[in-house]
Write a structure and sequence with these properties.
137 residues, mainly beta, five-stranded antiparallel sheet, binds thymidine-5'-diphosphate
Length: 137
């Protein structure tokens, strides 16, 4: 398994089919940066709503636009990244230690997250000032 430590887009396998295309991931895939322990998805997002606004202490994530389009904004304490996700065969790898906000959801969009850890509130930093304190030298 590769363990990249910066955000990046990963192109997932695609099986083209005239009846509709298919994409998959599995834990032993060469490109997988971690073992998947949990999946969740966000849907029915009202126009103008923002999700996220937190960082993770340990959890790694792959974020996929399973449907529609949205933006993922990442901040490492010094630099912002902005990704527009709108392809179901593309996954955004997010390491721990990045503040994330998700916005600009299109109508009917579905944000699928695959993560390396079971849900635990202890792994969240939800206060931006507290996040910035983790970056203080
Ligand atoms: P939250 O992480 O705040 O969503 P966002 O991605 O917008 O930051 O999660 C919203 C609520 O759902 C919060 O009360 C925690 C709960 N939750 C779970 O119970 N299990 C999960 O796997 C996730 C992601 C959230």
């Amino acid at each position: 398994m590769k363990t990249p430590d910066i955000p990046r887009l990963i192109e997932l396998p695609r099986i083209y089919d005239p009846r509709g295309n298919l994409t998959f991931v599995q834990n032993d895939d060469e490109f997988m940066p971690f073992k998947i322990e949990r999946a969740y998805w966000i849907y029915d997002v009202p126009a103008g709503a923002e999700r996220g606004s937190h960082a993770h202490i340990e959890a790694l994530s792959l974020i996929i636009a399973a449907g529609g389009s949205f933006n993922v904004n990442l901040f490492d304490g010094a630099k912002w990244w902005k990704f527009t996700l709108n392809r179901p065969f593309e996954a955004l790898f997010v390491p721990p230690g990045y503040w994330r906000t998700l916005d600009n959801f299109s109508s009917g969009s579905v944000c699928l997250s695959l993560t390396s850890l079971p849900y635990s509130e202890d792994d969240y930093i939800r206060d931006f000032d507290a996040f910035m304190r983790t970056k203080a030298v």
